[in-house]
Amino acid sequence: MRTSKKVLQEEVDDDEDLLERAPIVTVMGHVDHGKTSLLDHVRRENVIAGEAGGITQHIGAYSVQLEGGKVITFLDTPGHEAFTAMRARGAQVTDIAIIVIAADDAVMPQTVEAINHAQAAGVPMVFAFNKMDRDGANPEKIKEQLANMNILVEDWGGKFQCQEVSAKNGLNIDELLEKVLLESELLGLKANPNRNARGTIIEASLDKGRGYTSTLLVQTGTMRVGDMILAGSNYGRVKAMFNERGVPVEEAGPSHPVSILGLNGAPSAGDSFLVMEDEREVKNVAFKRQQLQREQSIRTQRRRTLEDIGDIIQIR
User: Fold this and answer.
1) 24-52 burial code (b ≥16 CB/10 A, e <16)
2) 221-238 pLDDT, tens per residue?
């Protein structure tokens, strides 16, 4: 076990080994402002159109290829809670956040919450003023409300990019994605594909027919079928990998989301994973982590019990 800490530490890549990678984007906003319609439109129009079967399954992340060949990876988080939970676990997954605001409504508390989350994580924001097809659409009012929060869009002399869109009829969606790519270029996102893969678990569940299925996002390195993987306190050999359309793939490089089979349990969202060469070491580390989890849960249970007894004595 002496070498495990060294193995688990992040290796530092040489600059010449780093290649450009796709940006990872999270779409956030108020529940009725069209976040889902925007994602659905992008997925329907751009996810390598024409492939037989289309999108066959929902996984929490998917890649979109634009006409120029550029790729954007979208994280389809269930809500800000998931974004916060993953950030709290140290999973810095998102590169850019698209904040969706309905142009016929206002900056709602949930929108403010999304902006706060993105700012706390230090993630650049691009604003999408949605529902421009509606009669009451007034993007200037939204810009004014944002200005009152010290967020100035480019039209008003600020640094934040914004785009008026309609997810319903596809108006200016391509322009929005171009602005995301521009933001990505400024960030200079790079990763080394020629090393063992590391990344983050997006979601995991038990499929009755196939066993534990985990959706994960490779952040550096390349993961291949047959690799030995450690994810949180779970481990296993990658038996099969699928992209977001359910098509089997043999490998996944940086910024690629895939769904895998082969882990011995369901890791938590935000758990980091890494590919390791030594199967025995993988099992050792997983076992140690399971022991720690058990000890922590016993400690918290014991502490609660003592508090409960104290409360009972006070009541009497």
Assistant:
1) bbbbbbbeebbbeebbebbbeebbeeeee
2) 999 999 999 998 999 999
